[in-house]
Here is the input.
Amino acid sequence: MISAKYTIRNDRELPNFKSKLRAYYKRFYKLRKFQYGRVSLYGTTFNPPGHEYIGDEYHTLLRRKFSNENYNLRREVFLGMKEGLREDELEERLMNTLAFVFNATVDAGKDKSGGDDVVVFEKGLVSETNETMECKIINSMIKIDLTLPNEIKYDYKYQWVEQLQQQLKIMEEKKESLTKKQIKKFQIPIEFIGYNCKL
Here is the structure.
């Protein structure tokens, strides 16, 4: 007996949100091998030996977001939106994100009405490779994640944001008397303010 093809519609009909999350995670996971063969973390098309494939980094980021990240808490901390999204609204965002990630796996293509060009040198391969905007954005997200300090990366309650804001307030109030030595003793490095803007 041949079973019908399993689709996103089947995911949306699952009995509870937890099972839907599991199904979406599997769909994101299946895309891990398709999008980074032509994108580099090092500013060139070709990665150094041992770094040709960054699907592992994609998977690590994916797993952390699904297992540990509270999306509504993140919205509240960074956007000031205290009213959380409903499960159906979260699912809608999941679907949109899945479509975005899928688009990152698709070659943008280009007009080759004059016939296919033969790629001989590395420069030719670079010119023939057409990254989608989605691909570039996801690549940038992974770059940022790889450089995140652990104090930020694994703080799932985003306590570092409040601590940083408190420290900045102290700096503003005591800007005339605060020394560099005192600033270095802050629990959260002031340099983290840049990550507050990126995330």
